[in-house]
Amino acid sequence: MSGGRRRAGTVRSSLRGPVRFLVWCAALLLGATGCFGGGEPGPPTGTASARPVTGTQLVIATGVDVTGKNGVRKRLVDAWNDLQEKQNSPWRARAVILPGSADLQRSQLLAALQSGSAAYDIVNLDVTWVPEFAAAGLVRELPESFADDGDILAKASATARWKGKVYAAPYNSDVGLLYYRRDYLAGGAGVDERKLDALARGRTTWDDLASLMEAVDAWARADKSDRSKNYRSAWTSQLSPYEGLTVNGVEAFTAAGVRLTDEDGTYTASPRTLEKGVTEFRRRVASAHTYEDAFASDEAGTLKDFAEGRTAFLRHWPYAYRTLHAALGDDRLGVAPLPGAAVLGGQNLAVSAGAAMPEERVRKARELVAYLTGRTSERCLLDAGFAATRASSYTDPNVSCDDRRALPGTAGPSEGSGGDVPRDAARRPRYARDTLLPALEAAALRPRTPLYGAFTHAFTTELAALHTSATARAAPDEDIARRLDAALRAVLPSG
Fold it and tell me: Which of 354, 397, 361 is closest to 379 using CA atoms?
């Protein structure tokens, strides 16, 4: 492949042993119970379950905490338990960690809540799952203040609603970011400070980015030193046929002005509008600057490739910052808002709609959700590496993480977290206010529909064919758009 890609018999990593382990361990993420953990593990296979709970113990069903074994989510639950003890309350909470990928966790939660086989009081839902769980009557309606109290970010608030009602509280957010290698751009390709400043401030278009990719590819092709020995291509992203491909596709389609559904999940696109999205998507992924391995890579693989120097640019999530900074440091790592549109991710907390749940239990579950998503807790989540869902976490000097067990680096290390990051005068991650917050405020939502699973399968199947099928690769954008339109109309209601 062109664009500076080289073949080498053995790729030697520039990372020293301990840092390489951190990158590898953090990169495994969803399947990495050996690296992370926290809370009580669920069963290794099959439907998720929890011991039936009676009395005064609340159970939270959640995925792995990417901040580590002694991660911030566990410490916040511990802080709530201590508060109950100080108030002479008998109530306590514990987390049950669901195993497997996000898709498997969704299936386990659906099966458990529909059958009543697991006594989950609170469930941690991916933002795309809320309409499905709400429409199925599996989670309870919550007061409006759980999604909008004047502080919660507007895009995060939208993910907690379905059909005008609130069914969840935004817990932690997520958004696509652009990571880049300063040493490759400035020290290698000789990119001037003006362009680097525009990149860092989010004033770069995809056309500008393509020019930077061409510059770094040209440098790598000509360079004879060890600085570019691992380099392969300019950028990588999660283009394997799973949710990562959906995210990349929605970002391209949104940047092209394509809206796939309305707020009620009704399909609103057409072959004509979809053609614009297909054109933009192909422009990004079919470029000679795209690393070939990206088409078989997820978050784990792309993080590792970037950290080990195979690409100059990486589209990834905020949690990657801590690991990448530990590996590369300030002199080699940069982070910026993603040009164009960046998809919003994250998780929301919802209260189970189990009919046998006593009113007092419902009240305490809501109280716990409010605590875990409140101003102090959100600031603690930001400090630990998550993207907070509240504006005050980024801007209010009077909001701090005042419980020491929830502060990063206290009460023992968070295994797998990759060490601390540069911080501003208020001890927030230094990039949070000027890079992360604007990206969250401008983020694009994926389709809001109870049929999201069917949508994402159809969407990724058609987009993946552009790489895996010679026929699709040769087809014009108009033909691909007609096929995609037919696939989406088959799974979504249309007006």
Answer: 397
